[in-house]
Amino acid sequence: MSDFLRPPGVLSEKDFQQRCIACGQCAQVCNYGCIELRPDYFFGVATPRVYQRKSPCFLCMKCSELCPTNALRNVPMQKSGMGRAFLDGKKCVDYQEENAVMCWTCYERCPLKGTAIVLGGGGYLPEARDECVGRGVCEYVCPIHAIRVVATRRLEPAQAGA
C-alpha cells in the first residue's frame, strides 16, 4: 500500500501522535469511507489514515469537527494541511508534444482548482501550487500516476531529537 495522509486539519505529526487517542470517531463520521484506522508500526495504536490512491479525502471536514482532542483541528478546507501535490511533467500526457489529447483530470477534480492546481503554459498545462492542501484526489484520478501527494509529515523539517 502507498504512503498515507493524515485526515484534514492535522497538526504536525509529533503533536498529532501526542494528542490522538485513537478513538476512531473520525473514521466513523466519514461518509466517504476514506479514513481507515491502521496500527502505527512502532506503537501499535490504530491511528487515522487516508490512502489517497484507494479513496481520497473529500474535505467534508466532519472528522476535524468531531475530534475530541484537537489532534485534527476544525479549520477551513483551504487550511486542512494534509499534504501537497507534485506533478511530474515527464509523465503527464498534457506535457507530451506528440499527444493531441488534453487530460486535465487533476485540474478538473481539484476542489481548489484555479488555486491549488492551475493551468499554466498558455492555459493548458496543469501545475500543482503551494496552495495545495493534499486531499489526494489528483493522485487518485490521474490515469498514469503523473501526480503524487506527499504527506505533510514528510514535508516537515526534521525536528532535533525526534
- Our estimate of the beta-strand percent is 15-25%
Rg (CA only): 16 Å
For the largest beta-sheet, the strand count, sense and barrel status come to: 2 strands, antiparallel
- Helix proportion: 10-25%
Shape: elongated
Q: Which runs of at least 5 residues are low in confidence (pLDDT < 50)?
A: 158-162
Number of E-state strands: 6
Supply the helix-strand structural class: alpha+beta
Spatial ordering of strands, largest sheet: 1-2
- Average pLDDT taken over every residue: 88
H/E series: HHEEHEHEEHEH
**CA distance, first residue to last residue:** 25 Å
Q: Please, what is the oligomeric state?
A: single chain
Number of helices: 6
Structural overview:
It is a single chain. The chain has 162 residues and is an alpha+beta fold. Helix content is 19%, strand content 17%. It has helices at residues 13-19, 25-29, 62-66, 105-109, 137-141, 152-155, and strands at residues 35-39, 46-50, 83-87, 117-120, 125-128, 147-151. A two-stranded antiparallel ribbon has the order 1-2. A two-stranded antiparallel sheet has the order 3-6. β4 (117-120) and β5 (125-128) form a beta hairpin. The two termini are 25 Å apart.
